[in-house]
Amino acid sequence: MGSCPVVEVDDDEYAKLIRRMNPPRVVIDNDACDNATVIRVDSIKKHGILLEVIQVLTDLNLIITKAYISSDGSWFMDVFNVTDRNGNKVRDKEIICCIQNSLGSDACSFPGIGNSVGIVPSKEHTFIEMTGTDRPGLLSEICAVLANRNCSVAKAELWTHNTRVAAVVHVTEESTGGAVEDPERLSAIKELLCNVLRGDNDSRMGRMTVCKDRTHTERRLHQMMFGDRDYESTVVGAGDDKPRPQVAVMDCAEKDYSVVILRSRDRPKLLFDTVCTLTDMQYVVFHGTVDTRDDEAYQEYFIRHVDGYPINSEAERQRVIKCLEAAIERRTTEGLEMVLRTEDRHGLLSDVTRVFRENGLTIRRAEISTQEGKASDTFYLSEMSGKPVEAKTIDSICRQLGEMVVRVKQSPLLAPKPPEVAGATSFLFGNLLKASLQSFRLVRSYS
């Protein structure tokens, strides 16, 4: 079968008319499955529609336990089995209504997913994006700079991977509570933060952007890490002997697809991370299966590039593998998880991160937010060597931070993988691919 280019739906008046005549259909069924809510989505296909649907579900803190993906011709059909964070069916009427409104007829005018997806003007916050070389105390220095310039952090998210760091920070003026408007102040803040990101003997210059727009934070973090090429090398240090994700990319010449198979530890938002990466690398998922059980996740995708062709070189194959491995590893949940909740005040974040630094800890990931005067922050921490945090260090931090500490959880580093027999991985994926292709043939026959 010859390759066919993906048909893009342009945002012209004719395309809008077609979408209005064929709005997405969303069915939410709590009776079809014993242990999950089943959500079915049918829609006109366009590049990025799968990511849009997954983004809506994950932003509602729903856990996707199974998924079946199919794009036939110009139509997109998906089935998701989802639960809430407690493993229960979704029965909250407000959440169900939000899913219907986000994915149903009101969603037929989704903006196209390009460089400007999800970007809207904002007068509430100034958005600062930063990438650079990770080092202990970096977030503490960033927060100190912002506090000294009379800026408050309303929300922030920081990821680290392979010695690289990416952060998106929502900043407000301390005096007005709104976005930083003064160009001179913005310029001064940018210069100071660039100096912090530059560090010492950094062969790869840090980058920072100040803007008054916003985008989907987690997708933007993936894009920033990808742009910073965090996937190019794997840094192994103390405590990093955990098993890595297994990713294989194979040919399905019979149907002119490339088949991507992933096995990894399961965690929230894993599906978003992998589909986000494939989408931003300009690949289209035509068919797919996702299954999770016993803390393990299995994902399988039949893909082509947006030009209609499968992966056609070993270099491209290796790049896809490395990028998907990085996408899974960026959102780390290992190490010491510390959740803080307290009354917000100016300089709070600077003080908290200074305590971590003074106790010899490095921040591997952070989620920071404030709402109605309350600060709610989650940090994932480890020793600077990469080893788990010692009990005496945890006690010291808890004494210094006091009642604001509401949760401390030490996630043990996973045991190392047993030694693999040469060729075992390729044998495993080869058998998985054969089984997948057999199922694929039984389900559909494409001309």
Oligomer: single chain
How many DSSP E strands?
Answer: 18
The radius of gyration is 23 Å
- What share of the residues lie within helices? 25-40%
Main pleated sheet? 8 strands, antiparallel
Can you offer a commentary on this structure?
- There is one protein chain.
- The chain is α+β, with helices and mostly antiparallel strands and 447 residues long.
- The chain is built from 11 helices and 18 strands.
- The relative contact order is 0.12.
- Mean pLDDT is 82; it is low at 1-10, 106-121, 414-429 and 439-447.
List the helices and strands and how they pair.
Layout: H1 13-21, E1 25-29, E2 37-44, H2 49-59, E3 63-72, E4 75-83, H3 93-103, E5 120-121, E6 126-133, H4 138-148, E7 151-161, E8 164-173, H5 183-198, E9 207-211, E10 213-214, H6 217-227, E11 246-252, E12 257-265, H7 270-280, E13 283-293, E14 296-305, H8 314-330, E15 335-343, H9 348-358, E16 361-371, E17 374-383, H10 391-401, E18 405-411, H11 424-443
Antiparallel strand pairs: 1-2, 2-4, 3-4, 3-13, 5-10, 6-8, 6-9, 7-8, 7-16, 11-12, 12-14, 13-14, 15-17, 15-18, 16-17
Helix pairs in contact: 2-7, 4-5, 4-9, 7-8
Write out key terms for the chains shown:
disordered C terminus; alpha+beta; 447 residues; disordered N terminus
Short description:
This protein is α+β, with helices and mostly antiparallel strands and 447 residues long.
